[in-house]
Design goal:
TIGR03085 family metal-binding protein; 9 helices; DinB/YfiT-like; Maleyloyr_isom; Nonspecific Lipid-transfer Protein, Chain A; MDMPI_metal-binding
Length: 211
């Protein structure tokens, strides 16, 4: 596992353990138990995880998720800490780096920011750059279906176009906050929005933003 992915993985496991199985998350309708089961199924049951993207496989995913959600919560947390099994594609370093850094960062914040007393994390510049590079690659995908033009901008002026169109809304923030915004956590992301007021309202209300 890469350094950043491993750090976020272990932090997520610790937060889930501390919060307990019935704590809220930013994932609508999911408790911490549901989120833990999702993480484990994604890594350990590729036969079912495809249901996250393919509608025809959704019933199988639902059954497997129910199976894992029913497991002891402590077991789920230990499986997250242990990491993917050898046969999982996520055990490959290249796949881990490309897929798990954002996955675990976002889910860590899903747990943290659902608590009333959360405070922003002080993330190092290297990690911010890593998140930005991932966001650049995924911007068009996470911006598909957005009802306005969408530009994501770092405080240093770097930008990426997530969706072409007019009117344009520019979202400014640190890469860590832009990732949360782009992956559907608009209400929890600490960002600034510039553009037509009606376009901003549409963007904030859309359910299509994110993967």
């Amino acid at each position: 596992m890469s350094t950043h992915a491993k750090r976020e993985r272990l932090l997520l496991a610790d937060l889930l353990e501390t919060a307990g199985p019935e704590a809220p998350t930013l994932c609508e309708g999911w408790t911490t138990r549901d989120l833990a089961a999702h993480v484990v199924v994604r890594e350990r049951r590729p036969d079912a995880a495809g249901g996250m993207l393919v509608k025809q496989l959704a019933p199988r995913l639902e059954r497997v998720m129910a199976e894992f959600t029913a497991k002891p919560y402590e077991e789920l947390i230990q499986l997250i800490r242990t990491g993917p099994p050898r046969f999982s594609p996520f055990s490959l370093k290249q796949v881990d780096e490309m897929s798990n850094i954002v996955e675990f960062y976002v889910h860590t914040e899903d747990v943290r920011r659902a608590q009333p007393d959360w405070t922003p994390r002080d993330l190092d510049p290297v990690f911010q750059d890593v998140l930005w590079s991932r966001l650049e690659r995924a911007a068009r995908l996470v911006g598909r279906g957005v009802p306005t033009g969408l530009v994501l901008r770092r405080p240093n002026g770097q930008t990426v176009v997530a969706h072409r169109g007019t009117p344009v809304v520019t979202v400014t923030g640190e890469p860590s906050e832009l990732v949360l915004f782009a992956y559907g956590r608009q209400s929890a992301a600490k960002v600034g929005l510039e553009g037509d007021e009606s376009a901003i309202a549409k963007l904030q209300e859309t359910k299509q933003l994110g993967i």
